[in-house]
Design goal:
It is a single chain. The chain is an alpha/beta fold. The chain contains 15 helices and 14 strands. The protein has a 6-stranded mixed sheet, sandwiched between helices. Belongs to the histidinol dehydrogenase family.
């Protein structure tokens, strides 16, 4: 018999932004649109107390900052980036240009062309998310993006060394120490000193997420961001202590982060609850993880794994961890998730930090219709067509004329009529084809 052992008591996150956030972000964007660099500097001073001579770091500044980072830290960053680069390159290699002949002399195709310029926002402050540099900057460069501008907020009046090092090692062409809405607006709209980009990527706080939402359409974005989500599917073979540790690993992302366990074993569910209560007091991030688990933690007991997978699909969670005897069954049993983590040897933090897959993933139910950030997001799939066989063009022209008139598009019909007449035997009912004129110029 299925039942809920622990229910969420807090209000779920909403797709709509707080009206105060919407208004604040709209005002900053409008100011940057009208006043460019002056507005950017004004808000950087107001929100971050940061007003250097240039927000963009010079090559010498970058080199000096990277030099200050311990070599062991740089080695770890390089290791993580090798894993992400290898997988991103395998993804890029799987994307092929195509051309097919669909009728005699009719060639249709597509080419995968990189976006010209991308922005990568790397969150900073007390929690510099260096992994976001790997996921955004590096993935864009593997896709072939010519210009990647990376930006991160200052930390206590300084450029954050580890974030700068991560952006540099990932291949950023430009590195800015600039945060918040002012950074997003400047990179989307352009100023006298900051060139605009074509896509905005990377996570951020509610203001950054809202800025991306408001600017979407003028530029592309990776995803609409929400709180980090995690869900575990477990059977009676799963270790409750491992489940507890792994749920709390994601609860510390934020006090509104949903953490869900779906299990076929009531004993596993109850033991997991006991372990979480024992672990939380000693967790350094208890002030965040505690409210997340209290308000948004859930434990569901179901009768079968089939029910577990069906329920998990309804959640469409960002991260789904499978702790069952046969974890790969989830590959064919589930379809709505940001990323799957199969088996006890695999934890969500591996995906967050270094295993190679991208950690920019859909939240708030978006996994029902999209996957996460990958090299394909930085590519435009552009189609083309060519009709070399003029007999086929005449045939297409006759049919084009008829179907266009069904829709009352006379101009479209005449383009088809012209080719039916020029290259075939169809009469041109609405005019005569002029004699071809050659120019002496």
């Amino acid at each position: 018999m299925s039942f809920v052992l622990k229910a969420a008591v807090g209000e779920p996150a909403q797709r709509a932004s707080n009206p105060a956030v919407v208004d604040t972000v709209a005002a900053v964007i409008a100011d940057v649109r009208a006043n460019g660099d002056d507005a950017v500097r004004k808000y950087s001073e107001k929100f971050d107390g940061w007003s250097p001579e240039s927000f963009r770091l010079s090559e010498d500044q970058v080199a000096e900052i990277v030099k200050s980072v311990p070599e062991t830290v740089l080695d770890d960053l390089r290791f993580a980036q090798r894993q992400i680069r290898n997988f991103a390159q395998a993804q890029r290699d799987s994307i092929q240009d195509i051309e097919v002949e669909t009728l005699p002399g009719v060639f249709l195709g597509h080419r995968n062309v990189p976006i010209d310029a991308a922005a990568a926002y790397v969150p900073g402050g007390r929690y510099p998310l260096t992994a976001s540099a790997h996921m955004t900057v590096l993935t864009a460069k593997v896709a072939g993006v010519e210009r990647v501008a990376a930006t991160t907020p200052p930390n206590a009046g300084e450029a954050p060394p580890i974030s700068v090092a991560a952006m540099h090692l990932a291949g950023a062409d430009e590195i800015f120490v600039l945060g918040g809405v002012q950074a997003i607006a400047a990179l989307a709209l352009g100023t006298d000193t900051i060139d605009p980009v074509s896509i905005l990527t990377g996570p951020g706080n509610a203001f950054v997420a809202e800025a991306k939402r408001q600017l979407f359409g003028e530029v592309g974005i990776d995803l609409f961001a929400g709180p980090t989500e995690t869900l575990i599917v477990a059977d009676d073979h799963a270790d409750p202590f491992t489940i507890a540790v792994d749920l709390l690993s994601q609860a510390e992302h934020g006090p509104d982060s949903p953490c869900v366990l779906i299990t076929t074993s009531e004993a596993v569910g109850r033991a997991t609850l006991d372990h979480i209560e024992a672990l939380l007091p000693g967790l350094v991030t208890n002030a965040i993880a505690g409210p997340a688990w209290r308000d948004h933690g859930q434990v569901h007991i179901v009768d079968t794994l089939a029910e577990a997978y069906t329920l998990a699909d309804k959640f469409a969670s960002e991260h789904v961890q499978i702790l069952t005897e046969d974890p790969r069954q989830a590959l064919t049993s589930m379809r709505n998730y940001g990323a799957l983590f199969l088996g006890e040897g695999t934890c969500v933090p591996y995906g967050d930090k270094l295993i190679g897959t991208n950690h920019v993933l859909p939240t708030l139910g978006a996994a029902n219709y999209t996957g996460g950030l990958w090299v394909g997001k930085f590519l435009k799939t552009l189609t083309y067509q060519e009709v070399r066989n003029l007999d086929t063009s005449a045939q297409l022209g006759e049919i084009c004329g008829r179907v266009s008139r069904l829709e009352k598009f006379e101009g479209h019909a005449r383009s088809g009529d012209l080719r039916a007449a020029k290259f075939g035997n169809a009469p041109l009912a609405w005019g005569d084809i002029p004699t071809r004129v050659t120019s002496d110029r």
